[in-house]
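Minimal example, chain plus flavin mononucleotide.
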Amino acid sequence: MARSFLFLLGSSRTGGNTEALARLAAEQLPTGTEQQWLRLTELPLPDFDDLRHDGEEHYPAATGNAGRLLEATLSATDLVIASPLYWYSVSTPVKRYLDHWSGWMRIPGVGFRPRMAGRTLWGVTALATADPSVAEPLAGTLRHTAVYMKMNWGGVLLGHGNRPGDVTSDEDATARAKTFFS
Ligand SMILES: Cc1cc2nc3c(=O)[nH]c(=O)nc-3n(C[C@H](O)[C@H](O)[C@H](O)COP(=O)(O)O)c2cc1C
C-alpha cells in the first residue's frame, strides 16, 4: 500500500518551530509520497462531549471540521502529530482532536479503531527548555495512544527552540529530522 502522510499542525501560531521541524523531516520523504498538511486552528473542533454512558453507545456522524479531520485521518497510513510542547504535553487543539477519537470510535459503520490499527503514529515537537526529558508527558500521550489504537509507534522528533526559527539552530534536531521517517 502506498504511504500517505497526514501532518496535523497543532501550534497556536503559524510559522513556528514545530512546523519548521516537521517540514524539514518531510523533505526527506521519498519523491511522490503523498502528504497532506492541516492546521488544527483552521479546523476548530467543539469541546468534546462524552456521551458514552448516557444509555447511548452510538455517536452521530462527524460533520463539518470533524468530518474533514476524520476523513483525512482515515485516509493516511502515517499520522504525524506536530504539536509544540505546551505545559509538558500536547497543545489544546491536538488534545481536543484526540478526545474526538473517542466519539469517532463509536460512530456506527465507521470502524475507526480497527481501521486505525496497523497505521503509524509519529510525533514532532518543539520546546523552550533545554532538558528534553520534560517532553516525556507528550511522548507518553502519543505512544500510549498508538498502543491503545494498535497503531505502530514511530517515535518523537524533538527540537529545541522558543522564538520562531530557533529550531533551525538545533543541530541535533535538524540532523535527526533528515532520517526521522526513514
Ligand atoms: C501555552 C504555552 C505553554 C508552553 N509550555 C512549555 C513547556 O511546558 N515546556 C517548554 O519547554 N516550553 C513550553 N512552551 C514554549 C514552547 O514550547 C516553545 O516556544 C516552542 O518553540 C513553540 O513551538 P511553535 O513555535 O511550534 O509554536 C510553552 C509555550 C506556550 C505558548
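Residues 129 and 160 are 7 Å apart (CA to CA). The longest strand covers residues 152-160.
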